[in-house]
């Protein structure tokens, strides 16, 4: 299946490499707003189909699908353009700025008979399956703490008076939607949508959250998600049960998953995959769903995307974090 890319950052490079390894997707087209950047990026991968116009690219027969990694606030515009031209779409997280955009896009995908995916890589990793199995060993879950706290070099630019996309409401940025969605998606993937959620942000003068604490309420337990782009952590995650704890490193990669028993302190490593680029699993799975027409799995992933966005939009608005796209 031929696919094009929108975006020329490191995450697009990572997806292209993942697609190559999966062998199910062939990179055939590149878009960037400027011809110089588009040509440089295409040259790196020996791609002949180069575009600086999204409509032209979406109408092209050179691709069947597109991977979109543009700034968050541009996702909806780009996604809709390709859906209307009957192309399958893989959009980097966070898929949209708000729920209205989500509903319109998924409705259009259904009308056009194509697939729309949110690229939440951790949910497709073999380590996610190991976490599901590990939950069976720790007894009734009572609490958890899942940090994704990672200092951004672009915060230095922000402190100097610049306006990097991820720290602006114009481009739908902030710690929750940039990093918090990784542990949030894990929790929703493992336990379903929470009964309630509250967010306690550290807001920057730009109007977005530089960091924050997200509290998720479930019957019988509470989950705590920490997210930040202005501080740093080791990012060890813990899910606490009455018999033991499920421990792993980094909510995006879930390295070294293990069970630690309460009574003995015994540590039992779970089956783990240490692939340096776990986007390969989502690339492979998205291609499989498209080729096989696996509607059941598609609907499951769609619901996960729905539930995560429902949480982030609710707590953002309650915290007074409003994106520019929501002010019209």
Automatic annotation (TrEMBL):
Ranges where the Gfo/Idh/MocA-like oxidoreductase N-terminal domain occurs: 1-117
Gene Ontology terms for molecular function: nucleotide binding
Occurrences of domain GFO/IDH/MocA-like oxidoreductase (ranges): 137-247
Organism: Lentibacillus salicampi
Protein name per the record: Gfo/Idh/MocA family oxidoreductase
InterPro entries: Gfo/Idh/MocA-like_OxRdtase_N (IPR000683), GFO_IDH_MocA-like_dom (IPR055170), NAD(P)-bd_dom_sf (IPR036291)
């Amino acid at each position: 299946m031929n696919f094009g890319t929108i975006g020329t950052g490191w995450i697009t490079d990572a997806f292209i490499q993942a697609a190559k390894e999966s062998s199910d997707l062939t990179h055939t087209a590149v878009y960037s707003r400027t011809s110089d950047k588009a040509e440089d990026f295409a040259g790196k991968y020996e791609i002949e189909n180069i575009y600086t116009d999204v409509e032209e690219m979406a109408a092209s027969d050179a691709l069947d699908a597109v991977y979109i990694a543009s700034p968050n606030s541009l996702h909806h515009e780009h996604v809709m353009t390709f859906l209307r031209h009957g192309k399958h779409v893989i959009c980097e997280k966070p898929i949209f700025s708000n729920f209205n955009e989500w509903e319109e896009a998924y409705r259009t995908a259904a009308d056009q008979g194509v697939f729309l995916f949110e690229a939440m890589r951790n949910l497709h990793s073999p380590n996610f399956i190991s976490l599901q199995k590990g939950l069976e060993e720790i007894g009734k879950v009572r609490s958890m703490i899942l940090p994704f706290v990672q200092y951004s070099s672009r915060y230095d630019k922000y402190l100097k008076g610049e306006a990097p996309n991820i720290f602006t409401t114009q481009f739908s940025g902030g710690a929750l939607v940039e990093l918090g969605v990784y542990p949030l998606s894990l929790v929703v993937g493992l336990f379903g949508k929470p009964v309630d959620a509250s967010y306690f942000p550290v807001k920057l003068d730009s109007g977005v959250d530089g960091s924050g604490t997200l509290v998720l309420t479930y019957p019988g337990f509470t989950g705590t998600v920490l997210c930040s782009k202005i501080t740093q952590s080791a990012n060890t995650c813990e899910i606490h049960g009455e018999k033991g704890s499920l421990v792993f490193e980094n909510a995006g990669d879930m390295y070294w998953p293990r069970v630690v028993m309460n009574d003995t302190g015994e540590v039992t490593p779970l089956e783990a995959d240490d692939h340096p680029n776990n986007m390969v699993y989502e690339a492979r799975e998205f291609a499989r769903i498209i080729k096989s027409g696996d509607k059941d799995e598609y609907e499951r992933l769609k619901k996960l995307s729905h539930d995560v966005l429902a949480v982030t939009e609710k707590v953002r608005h309650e915290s007074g974090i409003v994106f520019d796209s929501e002010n019209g």
